[in-house]
Write a structure and sequence with these properties.
Chain lengths: 588, 554
């Protein structure tokens, strides 16, 4: 792999369009007051700086030319101290307000992205890599921090302060003022220069570093594979060689890119040196453009202001890459989420209703159901139809991959379908989300366990369930059978970073959630998969008891499950048909 | 700072470049300070000169021009040298970290199993790379410059040296140290909140169906909002500390200025200090605080680098889970695999494998089936000695795998693991990992066996096609087949395949499995799979259930 470092530099840069840039800048409205404070404070600080410089110049003038005693100058000296204190306070206010603004904006944006995600169908999220979504919401949104906390205040300061300083100096010393003002029309040019240079520098440098980090991460991710193929040592050398190769190439780019900071440095030095030489020569009478003699106070004031004229520009250069980073993040956000979220219309999260609804078993009638595989190439159901009366308990059998899970997901309105599904007297599509969820309990084939304890996970079935109720549900679903062996029992933390549960154990935890609910229709997908014979028998018993007086549809491979239901269906040729040998309830 | 200091050999190794960078940085800052000082001195001196009296114009004006030129050039050089040294350091650190990790992977223990290890480690190394440029360099500069400036002030102005010393070193050393300490708690809180937030998002994405079905989206939103609020609070605290630091530097600079002014004015009226010198010294001192500002600004990076150093050090010092024995035995020729009463578990009381027995003769093909999480992958990783069995023996060619050199074992057994990646590089680069000296013909044969040849031949660059990060230019199925081709290309006489057909559509899966016997002819094959196996594809099928392995009739 000799040439990956070479390819590293020339990746696509992807210019995000103007709409995205406008959307990004528009986010400041989420924290108007804070952004305003972070922008205004440096401007006020600039005004105080003028005052401070002129006071300092006058103190020195009075002491050196006027031979004034330091005690008589005390009020001015104290005022200088006071101004310095005030400016420090303003710097604090600006930085703190900028940070708060950025934090507020990031937090709102994250909430908007997450809300958008939850509002989409599960199929939408399933089509996107979860790692990419997590990295977008957690890491990439961070890129906006620099833009709002630092770049925006620096941009405004760089646009206003140099000009303002030049205008103030103009009446004091017209030539120096002019020197500043001549550079003033050039300032947009500097800014373009800085922008071009700093952006190019940071872009190539940041990208080179990112690529190299990417290469390192890539090899690190596959280090076990490399070790097993005996290639680890060779790849360690490769990482080093690539770093070195990249160093040489990057330095070539940086040599040019650093010129932009040299240009800024040049102007800053020119300002100070030019003012010092010009004012000095004026004092010596070697240059005389003035009608009145130049006082030491005026000369010192000009000298003190000179570096300050260029300081805001240097600050802007420092923070310029924040803008590029934010733009790149927004561009990726637009791609991953199809569109950028609109933060202006914020809706209150919907509160889940209590389970006040009267629970009765409901009938299920399916007609002309047509569904395709996710890639749209094959038909899973072709005009299928069947009906189940209320309180009936049925099993659906069929090979894996035939469409059992698809059917259950359609019945739970977790997947789009064509045709009609009627629950009771209402069309499935017309039922309010809240009511629907209260009336249907659904156990999928690969239930997710969430970060938290086993008890927390079970309690997701009903948030206000007591410890006792959770324990009973866990008992019924045979969760206690393994949980009691763990040191912390039901309080054991599971999920990433916790104890890993096997597929069968996870399934039982998810089943326990169902037992906490009070549904009219129960949809279970392979509830007894991965269970040994004894556990399966107990779980089947618990399901039978729970399903009494409710409608139950269970997709299964297990003949034992099929043996205890009222009716069995098969899926064949895209239809749902009653099994030929109808297995009647064997016991009770 | 102890952990950070343990990385000092790396800096020492590049000491020439770093010293040059520091020297140039001192020069840059010194030139800036000198420029301001000489300007003030010259200007005041000129103002005091009554017309007609000769004033040495050339010295000061040459100094002013010299300092400005020096500042431009040395700043440019400093940036270049500093970045060069940092990039060199980066190569050193990465190579070192990689080599330290090789004997230690796969890492055991909960903390290392988290998915964010790679990104954290990369970020940690990045933090260590740039710590010189952002923090150590400026601190060294401050030490040199501050000492010089103190000496100059002490020489000209009694009492001023002490005032300056307190103000300058307070701002550039004491204050940053306090900031680093103060930032530890919010820093840790931010890292924790960020991890919680990531978990909340992952729960929302991967558990979307469950959340919707349970009507628990509001709960997920609440969990997310809580984590997000924690993060916001922690980050705001960090920002507050940084803002206080910035403001304090300005205050330190201001107090120092006022103090020097007070002392200077007294000396001036007493005639001990001339006006030009007073102005020059004042302006020079004021200019020197530039470096304190940049140190304080990067104090948070110093803290981050310190934390990173601790983590990297801890990781590189973990004991390898598997070691070669002192007197290894030679691995005999042959391709048989035997498991004798093998027991294994990651946590006590929860065995993954319970007295597993398995006999596979050389050249035989057997399948392992069982629910996901039942331990199929564990059997394969014990075969490659990625972990050691807690009881029982694993044998390859009749020899206990714990008694042979790992490298020999790995040459004999090739594994297609579930998480094996496509590497950044070309298709050929990826294949050559399996066999570094393979020619194009070998590569093509392996691609054909993995049913990827048709796809590769449609690519304009063929084998030289560049694959982006994590193989993003390939579909999941194609990536899987490329990894498979890599395994088939290897010279190993035993091939272990863990879910080789995951990500493949049913037709390709069927074709692939029916080709398997031809593609692996003569080699021993262990295949862990969920796929349906047609008769004759493998000689035997074993089912793993609750840690027990038994012959399956299916």
């Amino acid at each position: 792999m000799e040439n990956d470092a070479a390819k590293g530099i020339g990746g696509p840069s992807g210019a995000p369009d103007r709409r995205q840039a406008r959307w990004m800048s528009g986010l400041w409205r989420q924290a108007r007051a804070l952004v305003a404070a972070s922008v205004l404070a440096p401007l006020i600080g600039g005004a105080l700086l003028i005052l401070q410089a002129s006071l300092l110049a006058s103190v020195l003038h009075d002491a050196i030319i006027g031979r004034a005693d330091r005690v008589t100058l005390l009020p001015s000296i104290l005022a200088i101290g006071g101004l310095i204190g005030l400016r420090a306070a303003l710097a604090f206010v600006s930085e703190r307000a900028g940070a708060s603004a950025a934090e507020t904006i990031k937090s709102r944006l994250r909430a908007a992205l997450f809300t958008r995600l939850l509002d989409e169908s599960p199929a939408w999220t399933a089509a996107r890599p979860s790692g990419a979504i997590a990295s977008m919401i957690v890491d990439q949104v961070e890129a906006l921090e620099g833009f709002f906390a630092r770049f925006i205040p620096a941009l405004v300061a760089a646009a206003i302060l140099p000009l303002a300083f030049a205008v103030v100096v103009l009446p004091v010393e017209p030539v120096v003022g002019l020197l500043f003002l001549v550079t003033a029309p050039l300032i947009p040019v500097f800014m373009a220069l800085v922008g071009w240079g700093a952006e190019a520098a940071s872009r190539s440098h940041v990208r080179a570093m990112a690529r190299l980090s990417g290469l390192f991460a890539d090899r690190l991710r596959g280090i076990v594979t490399l070790k097993l193929f005996g290639r680890a040592e060779a790849e360690a050398a490769h990482v080093e060689a690539a770093s070195d190769e990249l160093r040489r190439r990057t330095l070539g780019v940086l040599k040019v890119a650093f010129l932009s900071s040299a240009v800024l440095e040049f102007f800053a030095a020119l300002g100070v040196a030019g003012v010092a030489v010009y004012v000095g020569l004026t004092y010596l009478g070697l240059i005389d453009f003035r009608t009145t003699p130049l006082t030491l106070q005026a000369g010192l004031f000009c000298l003190l202001m000179a570096p300050e004229v260029y300081f805001p520009l240097r600050q802007l250069a420092v923070h310029y890459h924040d803008r590029a980073a934010a733009k790149a993040a927004v561009a990726e956000m637009a791609i991953l989420f199809d569109a950028l979220p609109d933060l202006s219309e914020r809706e209150a999260p919907v509160r889940p209703a209590g389970d006040a609804a009267l629970v009765q078993a409901i009938s299920v009638a399916v007609s002309s159901l047509t569904m395709k595989t996710p890639d749209g190439r094959h038909l899973v159901f072709d005009e299928a139809g069947f009906s189940i009366s209320s309180g009936e308990q049925v099993a659906i059998l069929g090979q894996s991959g035939i469409g059992k899970s698809t059917l259950l997901e359609a019945l739970a309105r977790l997947r789009t379908y064509e045709g009609g599904i009627v629950l009771g007297v209402q069309d499935l599509q017309d039922i309010k989300e809240e009511d629907l969820r209260n009336r249907i309990a659904f156990l999928g084939q690969r239930p997710r366990l969430f970060q938290g304890s086993i008890a927390d996970n079970i309690r997701l079935g009903r948030r206000d369930a007591s410890d006792e109720e959770v324990r009973t549900a866990a008992e019924k679903a045979q969760v206690l059978a393994f949980a009691d062996l763990l040191d912390q029992g039901l309080e054991t933390i599971i999920g990433d970073g916790g104890v890993g549960l096997s597929g069968g154990e996870a399934h039982r935890v998810a089943l326990a959630r169902i037992f906490l609910r009070d549904p009219a229709l129960i949809l279970l997908d392979e509830p007894t998969a991965h269970l040994d014979v004894e556990t399966e028998a107990r779980v089947i018993d618990a399901i039978r008891v729970f399903a009494k007086g409710r409608t139950l549809i269970v997709a299964t491979h297990s003949q034992k499950v099929a043996a205890v239901v009222d009716r069995v269906f098969h899926i064949a040729d895209g239809k749902v048909v009653p099994a030929k040998t109808d297995m009647r309830r064997s016991a009770a | 700072m102890k952990a950070l200091f343990s990385f000092s050999p790396f800096f020492a190794h590049r000491s020439g470049a770093f010293l040059l960078a520091i020297a140039l940085s001192v020069l840059t800052l010194g030139a800036g300070v000198g420029l301001l000082g000489v300007s003030g001195w010259f200007l005041t001196g000129a103002a005091l000169t009554t017309a007609g009296v000769a004033f040495n114009l050339f010295g000061p004006s040459a100094l002013v021009r010299g300092f400005s030129f020096l500042r431009i050039v040395s700043r440019y050089g400093e940036k270049l040298v500093g970045h060069d040294a940092t990039l060199r350091l980066l190569a050193d650190l990465r190579g070192w970290q990689f080599r330290r990790l090789i004997p230690r992977v796969p890492l055991q223990g909960k903390a290392w199993r988290r998915g964010d290890l790679v990104s954290r480690l990369t970020a940690d190394i990045d933090a260590l790379d740039t710590v010189f440029l952002s923090a150590l360099g400026p601190i060294a500069t401050a030490l040199v410059l501050g000492t010089a400036m103190t000496a100059v002030l002490a020489w000209y102005l009694q009492g001023a040296g002490l005032v300056y010393e307190l103000g300058f070193f307070g701002a550039s050393l004491v204050l940053p140290a306090i900031l680093v300490l103060a930032a530890i708690a919010p820093g840790e809180a931010a890292v924790g909140a960020s991890a919680d937030l990531r978990m909340a998002v992952l729960d929302g994405v991967e558990g979307h169906t469950d959340l919707r079905a349970l009507g628990a989206t509001a709960w997920a939103q609440q969990t997310f909002t809580d984590a997000s609020a924690h993060l916001q609070r922690a980050k705001t605290r960090q920002a507050t500390i940084a803002a206080i630091g910035n403001a304090l530097v300005q205050l330190f600079a201001g107090v120092t200025l006022v103090g020097l002014l007070w002392i200077g004015l007294d000396a001036h009226s007493a005639g001990a200090l001339g006006g030009p010198l007073l102005v020059g010294l004042l302006l020079a001192s004021l200019g020197s605080f530039e470096v304190a500002l940049s140190i304080v600004r990067s104090a948070s990076r110093l803290g981050a680098a310190q934390a990173a150093a601790q983590r990297v050090k801890a990781l590189s010092e973990t004991a390898p889970a598997v070691r070669d024995v002192d007197a290894p035995k030679e691995l005999p020729q042959g391709g048989s695999v035997t498991f004798e009463n093998v027991c294994f578990g990651y946590v006590p009381h929860r065995p993954v494998l319970d007295e597993v027995n398995l006999q596979v003769g050389a050249g035989e093909r057997v399948a392992l089936i069982g629910a996901s999480g039942s331990g199929k992958s564990t059997i394969l990783s014990l075969l490659l000695r990625l972990a050691d069995a807690q009881a029982g023996t694993v044998r390859v060619a009749g020899e206990n795998v714990a008694q042979v050199v790992q490298a020999d074992l790995h040459r004999r057994v090739a594994l297609l693991s579930q998480d094996t990646p496509v590497f950044l590089g070309t298709i050929r680069d990826n294949l050559l990992i399996g066999k570094p000296d393979a020619n194009s013909e070998d590569c093509r044969r392996a691609l054909t066996a993995a049913r990827l040849d048709a796809f590769v031949s449609t690519l304009p660059d063929g084998l030289e096609t560049w694959l982006g990060e994590a193989g993003r230019t390939l579909s999941a199925g194609q990536a899987r087949r490329l990894c498979l081709a890599r395994v088939l290309l290897s010279q190993a006489s035993i091939i272990a395949l863990d879910e080789p057909t995951s990500g493949l559509d049913p037709e390709t899966e069927r074709d692939f499995l029916s080709d398997l016997s031809a593609a692996t002819s003569g080699r021993t094959v262990l295949i862990a799979t969920h796929a349906k196996l047609a008769p004759g594809m493998v000689e035997r099928v074993y089912r793993l259930d609750n840690g027990r392995l038994s012959l399956s009739e299916a």
